[in-house]
Specification:
six-stranded mixed β-sheet; 434 Repressor (Amino-terminal Domain); transcription regulation; DNA-binding transcription factor activity; Rossmann fold; transcription cis-regulatory region binding; alpha/beta; six-stranded parallel β-sheet; elongated; DNA-binding
């Protein structure tokens, strides 16, 4: 027979209400009492009946984080942060990958959010319009990651794309690089990039700024395009440019750290020294960068802050009983640090 909340209350010598407060982290109960109750509940293998809880409150205590790819270092670290932030609030987070290559998969995910399983979703929704998100979410709160509509109707948290990319390219010029290449972006003029909210285009805007500040003009010849922002694709693309004799660069800014890992491998296999021949800097600040050989310089985004802001905003909307997009959406951009490591350290 399943252990009930009343069983836990009797064993702990408290009321069922106190057990409820303790298990959801309610501040109205003393910390030492809460710890005692949780210890008792764990010893009795008590688990919350999500279905019953949902029927009583209209909430499940579960949120969903839907991102492009679960196997990328940035998203893996972000999801860990989301999980930790949710746990601190006494709720659970589940993860979903949306880039399966199947048409309509993003729509399917949002349609499922509209059922009783999740109270709300943190979403990377590159392929959906604002109107589609509004329709499919059916009033459930949604927080977007790097929203692709300018100051759109949804709460959103952003990586520091423009300023971070500008800082990365500026760093390469300041350490003496004369020909900086960009790995992972499709070239477009600055005025065209400014009309886009895609992550790659926003980072391209920052690159244009840095080139202009150093009296240079960014052209298509300065870019190495990728089919996919992955390590494998970056390795193949950089290797191909080197083998074709079309690699004039002494500095590389990679649009993500995952891209940078592929570029580093390609450079090493072709006998090109890093950082003396080519300095390399990435973007994201994933933990793996401190273990690559050489260690990776990067624009270190405050990933934990990004996750916590998304969870906090979503929980706030859930508590409000928000239906549909908020009248005054929040748009938050997190900070970054230029983290100089071996791959661009020319002061040795």
């Amino acid at each position: 027979m399943a252990v009930t909340m009343r069983d836990v209350a009797k064993a702990a010598g408290v009321s069922p209400a106190s057990v409820s407060f303790a298990l959801r982290g309610d501040p109205r109960i003393k910390q030492e009492t809460a710890r005692h109750i949780i210890d008792v509940a764990n010893r009795m293998n008590y688990s919350v009946n999500i279905t019953a809880k949902s029927l009583r409150s209209g909430r499940t205590g579960v949120i969903e984080a839907a991102v492009f790819q679960l196997d990328r270092p940035f998203y893996a670290q972000l999801l860990a942060g989301v999980s930790n932030a949710a746990f601190d609030r006494g709720i659970q987070a589940v993860a979903q990958q949306i880039s399966t290559g199947k048409v309509g998969h993003e729509k399917s995910i949002l349609e499922k959010v509209a059922n009783k399983f999740c109270d709300g979703v943190i979403l990377s929704a590159g392929g959906l319009s604002d109107a589609e998100i509004i329709e499919l979410s059916r009033g459930k709160p949604v927080v977007l990651l790097d929203d692709q509509s300018y100051q759109g109707p949804f709460d959103s948290v952003f990586t520091p794309c423009e300023n971070g990319a500008e800082a990365a390219v500026t760093h390469l010029f300041e350490i003496g690089c004369e020909r900086v290449g960009l790995v992972g972006t499709d070239f477009m003029p600055a005025d065209q990039a400014c009309r886009s909210m895609r992550v790659g285009d926003r980072r391209l805007i920052g690159c244009h700024r840095a080139f202009e500040r150093h009296e240079r003009t960014l052209t298509k010849a300065d870019t190495i395009q990728l089919f996919d922002w992955g390590t494998d694709d970056a390795y193949r693309a950089v290797s191909r440019r080197i083998e074709e004799g079309d690699f004039p660069f002494d500095g590389l800014f990679c649009m993500t750290d995952a891209i940078a890992f592929g570029a580093l491998r390609a450079l090493r296999e072709h006998g090109i020294g890093v950082p003396d021949d080519v300095a390399v800097i990435g973007f994201d600040g994933v933990r793996e960068g401190s273990y690559s050989a050489p260690t990776l310089s990067t624009i270190a985004v405050d990933i934990d802050k990004l996750a916590r802001e998304a969870v906090d905003i979503l929980c706030e909307r859930i508590e409000e009983g928000r239906c549909g997009a908020p009248a005054m959406p929040k748009h938050v951009t997190v900070g970054y640090e230029v983290l100089v490591r071996e791959s661009s350290n020319r002061t040795r």
